[in-house]
Design a protein that fits this description.
This protein is 33% helix and 19% strand. The longest helix has 17 residues. Strands 1-2-3-5-4-6-7-8-9 form a nine-stranded mixed beta sheet, sandwiched between helices. It has 324 residues and is an alpha/beta fold. The model has no long low-confidence stretch (mean pLDDT 96). The chain starts with 7 loop residues before the first helix and ends with a helix. It has a single domain, classed as Alpha/Beta hydrolase fold, catalytic domain (Rossmann fold, 3-Layer(aba) Sandwich). A hairpin with a 6-residue loop joins strand 1 and strand 2.
């Protein structure tokens, strides 16, 4: 494994011209209006995980199209005063789900209300999930990247991004949460989702975007040899006549176009040997980000990024902004 992308000095000034559809804002405005027609219908069932430092609930809420989405809610053990807790919503990497109830409790232990969301249709890769995607698709390549790719209205990530936005609404209405102090976090696919949420101007105060996926699709499809970008390449290898239509759809979901619209403070991370989300695609989003921003660089890492080292950086950074 070696650095295969642009040198760091070039990455730091790399600002590609990523296509943005003329109706990008209108498309998402209409999408969110349609989503608002469905009540959140939140249910929360307490779960005994055996962990006494954290209280946990099994959460179900209505996502895109009113479809049920599952999540875990972790709160610090001691009941907080009404409206006093900062909150954090986590989105999952590609193929992963919310995991088991006793996992991933760091942020609750650090003093946050912590909502860990499933990604619809996923959760059979590296971490279990329980949320199906009941929407069908035209012919697609195995995986999720090409489901509905010939029309932004049917594309898989339209549903995922709406689910993610509604998860913020779920945590915001909790009685112990301060709705003005909500952050979002995710790595890889989860980082791409967090970036979309920031760009769609959800009521959040901070975003932590780790080694993000779903940014600068045109370049990613040219230089990333591995999946998930490879799913699109193999689809277009067969459906040669779909290239322009597919790329047009992907432009509605490109992290660069969300970055240009995001205003909340953001902490990014990048790994310079990342073969899954190449550094130039990460810097495409970072350099386009319109709000206050920082980036942590991991010189000798692949897609694992900074792992526990970066968690320590996130704790410092988010505490300075949301003050648990």
């Amino acid at each position: 494994m070696a650095e295969f992308d642009l040198p760091l000095a070039e990455l730091q000034t790399y600002t590609p011209s990523v296509p943005v559809p003329e109706d990008f804002d209108g498309f998402w405005e209409q999408t969110l209006q349609e989503a608002d027609a469905f009540d959140l219908d939140v249910t929360m069932e307490p779960v005994d995980t055996g962990v006494r430092a954290v209280r946990t609930w099994d959460v179900v809420f209505s996502g895109f199209g009113g479809h049920p989405v599952r999540a875990w809610l972790h709160l610090p053990a001691i009941t907080a005063a009404p409206g006093s807790l900062p909150a954090l919503v986590r989105y999952q990497g590609y193929g992963g789900g919310r995991g088991l109830a006793h996992e991933n409790i760091l942020w609750a232990a650090a003093g946050y209300a912590y909502l860990i969301c499933d990604t619809r249709g996923q959760g059979s890769g590296w971490s279990p999930g329980e949320t199906p995607d009941p929407v069908g698709s035209a012919p697609s390549h195995p995986g999720f990247m090409t489901r509905g790719i010939l029309d932004p209205r049917t594309y898989y990530y339209r549903r995922v991004f709406v689910d993610a936005l509604r998860a913020v609404d779920v945590i915001a209405q909790h009685g112990e949460v301060d709705a003005t102090r909500i952050g979002v976090v995710g790595g890889s696919q989860g980082g791409g989702i967090a970036l979309a949420v920031a760009g769609l101007k959800a009521r959040i105060a901070a975003a932590m975007v780790d080694v993000p996926f779903l940014s600068n699709f045109p370049r990613a499809l040219q230089i990333a040899d591995s999946d998930p970008y490879g799913e699109v390449v193999r689809y277009l290898k067969v459906h040669r006549d779909h290239r322009e239509q597919a790329l047009q759809t992907l432009s509605y979901f490109d992290g660069v176009n969300f970055s240009r619209r995001a205003q909340v403070p953001a902490l990014f991370s990048v790994a310079l040997m990342d073969e899954t989300c190449p550094p130039s695609t990460v810097y495409s989003a970072y350099n386009s980000y319109a709000g206050p921003k920082e980036i942590a660089v991991y010189h000798y890492n692949d897609h694992e990024g900074g792992e526990a080292f970066h968690e320590a950086e996130q704790l410092r950074w988010l505490h300075a902004r949301l003050r648990p």
